[in-house]
């Protein structure tokens, strides 16, 4: 069954708005960061990673965001362009803002953390007036990311992008991507997450992220069906709730909770799993695949990324995802 | 024809959320404020004035807001209580915020201005967690005022109040009351005004206020019908657009632009006209009167206030409004 | 004995730098402010009051400060000019700052308090580049006030004024006037008070103000002699420490603690006592009087002010002070 | 001739207060940073580098500063300890501040730049109450660095450290180290630099740094003698003014301008030259050497650092400096 219909006549497959930053990944891993002496630079930020993933999968993509007027900002713009992502709506900050940084610490494959630099970052300075209506008018999908709601004026830029997407009929995907830093309070977070989610067609998040959004509501059992039903009353057609190791469930208005099998992986680190999953899943849905098949595809894409050192740079092509699934099916890959 | 149906079973006629402040009105008028030596203190703030007006007209009312923990804040709470307004959701700030002030300057009946003190004011510190769902659940009407959207956390408190009002079926009135100070940019203002207006049943504002809200849209002729139609696509049933001396028009989804006659007045100053108009109009609609009769009632209430020295303290009772209309009909009142 | 020598050739007797604000004095007194309905407007701020006092006593005076670009600011400039104070270095703010306010509450002659509005005030926005060296070069005395040290850029403007005063040989008077609001921490306060006091010839303050300045030092008995001795090691020639009802003592490097008799007064309120005392005392010292006679003169001036409704507007002329002392000497005035 | 006498009985040779941060040095050099993919982590910050230099030269040293409560902060503390620097007054921030970062770009040996991260950094959060008087009481030398004056509360901590150093007789060295970011305005900078410099015995800076300090003064020819003479009127005994390629001159109250010969070097980058020069020079003066010999020693230390990839980690031992001078004298080292 088809839960979401995409406006096929539009020329751009996918646009995302939000965070563009730099990951500085520890080269010497399996140790505390205090003992890491060198770091490698990658483009990062959840919506940036997803867009790179979509582009690698062959989609025509664009990004809406803001970069610092410095070497890091220029590196980001150049990397996006080299990945065939349209950067005509990537604006350069003129106020002296810096590029957000994420230093990664990989103590073990299952013990990873991030040291964030998010003060005065360029990506949160995108204004509503800088968002190009003409770009969104041509997009089949607009993806928004929760971190871009954390501060003004980026928050207002996202709401304006939602207005344009609604007006022009784009399918809207909301990747919750909640990160407490940069938010003033959980109450503030919940209010804006809910205002944005009301307008979205596909919502992806962890059970904990949905709990945060329900702090003013009554869902004492943290019941997925209650959570999903609320959004079906607004605009949603698919609500994916991720339960960590228990897997993800895609809820639909017909009451079904769709599940998919997962794949083994030789895990290096956990970063980037959600972003590659989102890219693979959205790609599948846009191909007209079942939700189950789309979720499987997302899972395979995620396995490839968590087996690698980087996030953005490891985003797979369709051929790589297909090959990974085949190798798993042949039993050639087992869990680490 | 009835455009709005009120939930009659509810026990509270009217609740408002937003600004509570102090007006310091020049005692020596018809001169620049530099030459005014003494000032008289009144409760002020648009939603406060409207609530006082509704209470004087005999409605059961409550206020949702925040006051400074000082003499000015205590004066406000006491005045509301003396006017039979429920203050159980008027919270006292504990952070050292001050009470907003508005010094009025009356150079002539038609040349009035205000000197505002809006830095670190208590009313903008109301949080979403402080808004009582149980109070809104009992209200037939919730009135929100644009100034409360100007800053966090008051902005989020208003959106949370809107959520509760929607959930419990209150009729929502939006008094635009746009004042540029305290807002960061016109773009930011437009984004939040539009997000709030989407959820409202009755919207009242000047043509200029609606223009501000349309800065990302195409209404080059500033056409009232285009303006109103947008909101009928969301939740609105009545959109009142005020055209200054040309009078106000109440638009309804049936395409009608309702107009009402106005009354003469011996004008002292223009402050408070909009607030008393809103109180009179909402009162009329709640009585089941036609929009035309409700607008006339609002106009008469406004005439009484602009003929007086204060705003809040001059809000009329129903008997006073009726008497004013009768005296006008008998030709006993002529314009100053 | 002469403790301080003034540069007699200079054309300006007295310049002060710092706070200019508005006092809003309760008209209905001997009650809580909640019950006060009207307020009268006066120029206020400790250095402004002292300068008005000096001008009334016949001195040639000037003020260095910043006013809001509004009706309150223009009232202040006009009042200073009408009191023959040179305002050529009173700068008008262009950033939208407001005029500081002080609402006075007079519950009884001995129970007075102030409700301050000090957010975004113009007086704290004076910059070092706006301080006119040429004006200070002509001044016999420069008075600085502690409140002007509370925030940047006013803080730096005061230090720059001190540089000019030192360079050109003005006698520097420091009126401590410590008010905790607007300061970030007691530690910060102590650091800047000490840096400023190092450069001053005459320091006036309460025992509590000197205690605040000594928080990083060892004076467990709060011994006046230890306090004064520290400043004699820098630039000070007179250190006046006020002990409330026990009276004030003027310490000098010769080890003497000078005391003066006080006068009775019919007290209305306590505000303004310190400012009128400072004006009377400095005036006396500039006349070449003994410290004891100068302190008496300050006390008499203070009695006149606390017997009146206002501070600035009640500052006496020399004839009024002389008359008050004579009447006291004749027993015509007794304490209230 | 001896210009400065050190309090030899004290147990600690050298203490510094101020910036502790992380340098992230480009591994792939001689290209724009956009093309640099990996970075190596070092301890940085001018006073940190000088203290490491002093420790390497055999001095007993301590640091007064504040580090972030994260992996970067712990790395800094550990590195200082491994370099035998007393960290008992290195405080850990508890407010969520981050570690300052400096990404270095080395386009060529003579075209180097830095990308700074200075928002919400831990080092600027040191408070005056955290500075240990007992530590400064035992120090022969206290070095302050201009960057620590850039913001509160670090600014006040430096002034408090100066108070303690004055009280206990430490020789105070001021390394101007002016960096415009983090300062609000040049005026503010000049005011605090001058207030600090008044209390210092040895002042080191570039001609441009002294120009910045003289913006309120009259030195139209930028005459070194006028500059130095001002500080001799306060506390200074040596004022070193650096003229880039024309070399440095050490001015003394006897009117002499001391110069020293320089050494050739195979330059990798210019970073760290000033810090190693300062360490070598102060070390020499503390040995009782002439200013000329001390300056030579500083120059040789600087040559070693600019021939290396890092700043802090390349600080030489005395044996290394001696060897470098000998090799230069034997003609074994020539300029790159």
TrEMBL record, chains A, B, C, D:
An individual GO BP term: inositol catabolic process
Carbohydrate kinase PfkB domain location: 15-317
The reaction(s) this protein catalyses: 5-dehydro-2-deoxy-D-gluconate + ATP = 6-phospho-5-dehydro-2-deoxy-D-gluconate + ADP + H(+)
EC number: 2.7.1.92
InterPro entries given in the database record: Carboh/pur_kinase_PfkB_CS, DKG_kinase_firmi, Myo_inos_IolC, Myo_inos_IolC-like_sf, PfkB_Carbo_kinase, PfkB_dom, Ribokinase-like
Alphabetic keyword roster: ATP-binding, Kinase, Nucleotide-binding, Transferase
Domain of life according to the entry: Bacteria
Record Pfam families: PfkB
Molecular functions (GO terms): 5-dehydro-2-deoxygluconokinase activity; ATP binding
Listed pathway(s): Polyol metabolism; myo-inositol degradation into acetyl-CoA; acetyl-CoA from myo-inositol: step 5/7
UniProt keyword annotation of Kinase present: yes
Family designation: Belongs to the carbohydrate kinase PfkB family.
Record's function text: Catalyzes the phosphorylation of 5-dehydro-2-deoxy-D-gluconate (2-deoxy-5-keto-D-gluconate or DKG) to 6-phospho-5-dehydro-2-deoxy-D-gluconate (DKGP).
Protein name stated in the entry: 5-dehydro-2-deoxygluconokinase
